[in-house]
Amino acid sequence: MLSVEGLRSRYGRIEVLHGIDIEIASGEIVCLLGANGAGKTTLLRCLSGVQPVAAGKITFRGENIVPLPAHRRLSRGLAQSPEGRQIFANLTVEENLRLGAWLYADDRVQRDMDDAFALFPVLKQKRALAAGGLSGGQQQMLAIARALMGRPTCLLLDEPSMGLAPIIVDQIFDVVRQMKALGLTVLLVEQNAFGALRIADRGYVLETGNVVLSGPAHELIESPRIREAYLGL
Amino acid sequence: MSDLLQFLLSGLTVGAVYALLALGFTIIFNASGVVNFAQGEFVMLGGMATAFGIAAGLPVPLAALLAILGTAALGVALNALAIAPARGAPVVSLIIITIGAAIFLQGAAGLLFDKQIHRYPGFSGEAALRILGATILPQSLWVIAGATLTFALLWLFFSRTLTGKAVLATANNPLAASLVGINTRAIMALSFGLSAAIGAVAGLLVTPITMTAYNTGVALALSGFAAAMLGGLGSPLGALVGGLLLGVLEALTAGYVSSQYKDAVSFILIILVLTFLPQGLLGRKSTDRV
């Protein structure tokens, strides 16, 4: 579904991704682990087209998407729920969701919105309120729901658990599992390694711009290196 | 009493023009963070192009329409040729680019049209109407009605259409906007075209009253900027309130103090607002949660 080969990216003259190779099959949940500054978010930004790629290839459903500008990639089925939520704070919850389906103007938009409200009932209660007034957890739900409105086949989730209460984190990870059941492919970037590995099929570990470890989630969770570095065990 | 009414009426007329100018500032500021000092040139061009269209024998509505479309195209071109290539530059650099563009547009208008003062007859004749002892030109009513209609249409655009919401979303969070598939460059172009068209509308409505020439844009831009600051830069409602308030203040100063101090009002206001009320009357402090 999504394959990344030899991906390099830099901020100014400083290279932060030194040739990343990643492969994601259709219907998988793959998690991307790593400490702050490892390059996880940069990688997702490259995939979404909001960060320039210096070298390498990104193939999504058979097409090299590197030349595509960000706003074209969603129409190919690649959506991102960005780090720090990045909701439209001045607009209402409903308007945020409607804009998630900016590419579409058919009957399915309303059905998708009903589905989003079913997934996150609290958003339905707050549908007419400005999104900037939501709590952190609700904003995260809105960011995920907005990405789903774009009808992705592959969803990139950047740090959905960041700064949230454990009970909300569980709820959000539950939703990610439901997405898999619906046939969605998910690339999950997380610092919460334990939570992410429990719901993922496979994982990659990034350190200072390189993939240093990869494998099935149940193996990674047993790996001494992971347990020491990311699980604090 | 009739004096006061007279001042209020002329203040509202000028204020409606300032409000449209401030609205143009607001739209571009929201889309790009840039204060576009070429906004006054759009007003000048709207008036000049209409004057030359009418002089060339075109019917008034056609001349006006061409002036609006031409100015809008120029706004889009300004963005494409001067602002978009400098994407990522500090906002101050972009603002200086707009000042350069204003000087360029003024010079080009002086060459392309001429350096004379122009006007054309009011759309509904020149006979002043009497209201409670005060007089008002029918063209003033055109200005006020035109500004009201423009604000109403814009309000509908932003509150009722998905494209309008996309403009607001892009202003609010350009990164997220491109992630939901909005072409933020196209939205920028749209904002510049819209602002330029609004400027042209103001110019072609007010020219029968104030007359126009190639070099009137700078003073208009400064007054419009003062109005936008007063109302709160970034707020369309603030643009309306700031514009009308500035127009009325100017007219009252001209009437009760001296018309020589009329222009000082904008500048004193800019200083006062920047010092004591940097958010303007209706501007909001940003309250994003992190």
Topology:
The complex is a heterodimer of chains A (233) and B (290).
Chain A (H helix, E strand, L loop, with lengths): L1 E10 L2 E11 L4 E6 L5 H9 L6 E6 L2 E2 L5 H4 L4 E4 L11 H8 L7 H12 L1 H5 L10 H14 L4 E5 L7 H16 L3 E6 L2 H7 L2 E6 L2 E7 H4 L3 H6 L4
Parallel strand pairs in A: 3-8, 3-9, 6-7, 7-8
Antiparallel strand pairs in A: 1-2, 1-4, 4-5, 9-10
Chain B lengths: L1 H31 L6 H17 L4 H24 L7 H22 L16 E3 L2 E3 L1 H23 L1 H11 L1 H6 L4 H27 L6 H15 L4 H21 L7 H13 L14
Antiparallel strand pairs in B: 1-2
Helix pairs in contact in B: 1-5, 1-8, 1-9, 1-10, 2-3, 2-4, 2-8, 2-9, 3-8, 5-6, 5-8, 9-10, 9-11
Question: What's the short version?
Answer:
The complex is a heterodimer of chains A (233) and B (290). Chain A is 36% helix and 27% strand. Chain A is of the alpha/beta class.
Would you write up a description of this structure?
The complex is a heterodimer of chains A (233) and B (290). Chain A has 233 residues and is an alpha/beta fold. Helices cover 36% and strands 27% of the residues of chain A. In chain A, the strands form two sheets. In chain A, strands 6-7-8-3-9-10 form a six-stranded mixed β-sheet, with helices on both faces. In chain A, a hairpin with a 2-residue loop joins strand 4 (55-60) and strand 5. In chain A, 48% of the residues are buried. The mean pLDDT of chain A is 91. With 290 residues, chain B is mostly helical. Chain B has a domain at 15-216. Helices cover 72% and strands 2% of the residues of chain B. Chain B has eleven helices and two strands. Chain B has helices at residues 2-32, 39-55, 60-83, 91-112, 138-160, 162-172, 174-179, 184-210, 217-231, 236-256, 264-276; strands at 129-131, 134-136. Chain B has a two-stranded antiparallel sheet with strand order 1-2. In chain B, a hairpin with a 2-residue loop joins strand 1 (129-131) and strand 2 (134-136). In chain B, helix 2 (39-55) packs antiparallel against helix 3. The radius of gyration of chain B is 19 Å and the shape is globular. The model of chain B has no long low-confidence stretch (mean pLDDT 91). Classes of the chains: A alpha/beta (233), B mainly alpha (290). At the A-B interface, helix 2, helix 3 and helix 6 of A face helix 6 and helix 7 of B.
